[in-house]
């Protein structure tokens, strides 16, 4: 049957040619990074304007991140628009995303305020074929090309371990973030779990403060009135909780320098210059340095890669971090976040020591 034989030969040639073409395209796409696995949907073919949306600007941490964004965009060859501040309002953040999309951006770098609410904005971007990189907070649902974030479970664990090494027993307070954010949930649960399993003689008291300085101050004041024997405090965000915590302790005559009788051991998260100064003065004892500079740098790195159609896979990176797959299926680059104490507070490599 010569007709059937001819059809078989033609089909074989078509299949072979397709395989070669696919192999060639994969080989070309794999040149971007050691973790690069192939091509994805590009927002702008690697070029175009990028919108950058901030959660708030009332925290020194986010002020520093905001300052780093244009510098890191330039270093990564990204055309970033002026940043947009959602002013701690999740619904405003969705509006901000829509406004940026209407301006024709080809990529978005967003620091979500609410891990669930952000899905509406991510869906808008997905419908327009615009890639998104999330910074600092991972969404519960929705499509993002990468999450750039430190391991927030480690934040809570490091804080617990520091307090546990310095306090044998007694009451400790954790001033929590917004539990609508995965960051607040991760830090809170990790701290609780660590205390329960490693330091059962510590009793944890909790202040849900929603990343709000006024809320932290008023609730801490009330808690100290009822519990003047507090021995330790864990602040989940020094950028918003440091000043009100120190002011509240000072107003009650409870702000004692490290080494003095009655000193309350305090551990924070963020790594801002104000925390470093407080460590030097003995007002607080430690903080976990959340990398504002690296958040900006790799936010720009990954949005450029996404716009070029590149994708990544779990595993170690070439910048001392690890990409992991979250339960949602989203990839997250977990950047290192060192514990800072009086022993290393003057390390010039810490971003908090480079801010003028």
Architecture overview:
With 356 residues, the protein is an alpha/beta fold. The protein contains ten helices and 17 strands. It has helices at residues 2-29, 60-76, 90-102, 119-127, 152-166, 182-198, 213-226, 238-251, 273-281, 292-307; strands at residues 36-39, 49-54, 79-80, 84-85, 107-110, 132-135, 146-150, 170-176, 202-208, 232-235, 265-270, 286-289, 310-312, 315-316, 322-325, 331-335, 339-340. The strands form three sheets. Strands 2, 3, 4, 5, 6, 7, 14, 15 and 16 form a nine-stranded mixed beta sheet that branches. Strands 9-8-10-11-12-17 form a six-stranded mixed beta sheet, with helices on both faces. β15 and β16 (331-335) form a beta hairpin. α5 (152-166) runs parallel beside α6 (182-198). The longest helix is centred in the N-terminal third of the chain and has 28 residues, at 2-29. The termini are far apart. 46% of the residues are buried. Residues 1-41 have low confidence and may be disordered.
Topology summary:
Blueprint: H1 2-29, E1 36-39, E2 49-54, H2 60-76, E3 79-80, E4 84-85, H3 90-102, E5 107-110, H4 119-127, E6 132-135, E7 146-150, H5 152-166, E8 170-176, H6 182-198, E9 202-208, H7 213-226, E10 232-235, H8 238-251, E11 265-270, H9 273-281, E12 286-289, H10 292-307, E13 310-312, E14 315-316, E15 322-325, E16 331-335, E17 339-340
Parallel strand pairs: 2-3, 2-4, 2-5, 5-6, 6-7, 7-16, 8-9, 8-10, 10-11, 11-12
Antiparallel strand pairs: 1-13, 12-17, 14-15, 15-16
């Amino acid at each position: 049957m010569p007709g059937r034989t001819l059809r078989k030969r033609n089909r074989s040639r078509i299949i072979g040619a397709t395989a070669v073409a696919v192999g060639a395209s994969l080989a070309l796409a794999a040149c971007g990074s050691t973790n690069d696995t192939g091509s994805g949907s590009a927002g702008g073919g690697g070029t175009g304007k990028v919108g950058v949306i901030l959660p708030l600007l009332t925290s020194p941490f986010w002020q520093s991140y905001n300052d780093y964004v244009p510098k890191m965009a330039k270093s990564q060859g990204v055309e970033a628009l002026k940043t947009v501040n959602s002013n701690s309002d999740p619904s405003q953040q969705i509006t901000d995303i829509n406004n940026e999309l209407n301006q024709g951006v080809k990529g978005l770098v967003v620091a979500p305020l609410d891990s669930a609410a952000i899905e509406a904005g991510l869906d808008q971007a997905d419908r327009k074929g615009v890639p998104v990189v999330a910074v600092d907070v991972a969404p519960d649902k929705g499509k993002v090309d990468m999450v750039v974030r430190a391991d927030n479970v480690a934040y809570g664990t490091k804080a617990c371990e520091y307090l546990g090494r310095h306090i044998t027993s007694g009451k400790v307070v954790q001033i929590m973030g917004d539990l609508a954010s995965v960051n607040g949930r991760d830090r809170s649960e990790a701290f609780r779990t660590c205390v329960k399993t490693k330091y059962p003689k510590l009793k944890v008291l909790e202040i849900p403060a929603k990343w709000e300085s006024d809320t932290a101050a008023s609730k801490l004041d009330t808690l100290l009135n009822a519990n003047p024997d507090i021995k330790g405090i864990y602040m989940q965000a020094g950028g918003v909780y440091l000043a009100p915590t120190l002011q509240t302790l000072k107003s009650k005559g409870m702000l004692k320098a490290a080494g003095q009788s009655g000193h309350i051991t305090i551990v924070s998260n963020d790594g801002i210059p104000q925390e470093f100064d407080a460590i030097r003065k003995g007002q607080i004892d430690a903080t976990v340095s959340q990398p504002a500079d690296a958040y900006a740098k790799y936010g720009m790195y990954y949005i450029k890669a996404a716009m070029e159609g590149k994708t990544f896979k779990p595993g170690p990176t070439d910048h001392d971090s690890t990409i992991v797959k979250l339960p949602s299926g989203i990839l997250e680059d977990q950047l290192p976040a060192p514990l800072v104490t009086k022993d290393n507070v003057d390390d010039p490599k810490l971003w908090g020591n480079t801010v003028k």
